[in-house]
Amino acid sequence: MLEHGGRLRRAAEDYGVALADWVDLSTGISPWAYPVPPVPEAVWQRLPEDDDGLDDAAARYYGSAELLAVAGSQPAIQALPAVLRGARVRLLAPGYAEHAHAWRERRPQLVDAAAVEDAIDDSDVLVLVQPNNPTGVHFERARLLDWHARLARRGGWLVVDEAFADTTPAHSLAPLAGRPGLVVLRSLGKFFGLAGARVGFVFAPAEVRRALAERLGPWTLAGPARWAARHALADTAWQAAQRARLDAGGARLHRLLQDHGVEARGPALFQYVHLAQAAQVHEAFARRGILLRRFDDPPALRFGLPADEDAWARLEAALAHCPNLLKEP
Asked: How many CB atoms lie within 10 A of CB 308?
């Protein structure tokens, strides 16, 4: 299994800090979750039904009805290589490791952000995370459309994972779903803070959605998760307030890191720091009950948003505690 953020129980055991005493900044999940209404008893008792209004709510929110609801984006990530043809696969690196793992049998070539342009005309499938996780790299929408057009002309595919795109919806390619050669993945885990519900959507041409649905089987998304997602996607007032709150939190986190001499970048939900001593900083923070996401190649850290003023104060104290580790040699 690949490593992901959020392994609090293991951290509590490794560092001897009680589970309730941790500040978890390791996941990039919003610390403010959508307040799901009480789930009616009948929703727990009945099999999930795909005409319950979820698809309509998702179509309004994302701007396209060319969608398939799935149990988070992970099942789609794992199934897409069996559905999309193409021998020459390119993946943005560093990036969300599950993509490379899913495509491993085709021996994908990993390319950094600067090399994507030159790789397009020698690719059959290009997989990107936009904005990128973990580096925060963001490509202009016009550039993505150009890459898609060049791939599609040759029967190729652009796969865009937009897990962190909700704070900047105008940049999304989901409204263009249905075009040949384009697949967009979305999920409710990050922006809505509903990672445990495991709700996601695939936006793609009908034949791709049919093939995925056949592979994933019936009832891929639980009824209570569908209930929660339908309400979250329809609550436009909460969404507007959440965007404002996340934008403010992201700006505050960026300023705090810069005030301590740390160069960071990222979307509203996280900040990415390339740091030679990432392992030592991760260790120092963990011993203070603050969990960061550590990366080894290249050495880097990802900081998520603190949930409240106490968490902000603990983060600031930890940054002040290890100034020498935060300096590049």
From this structure: 10
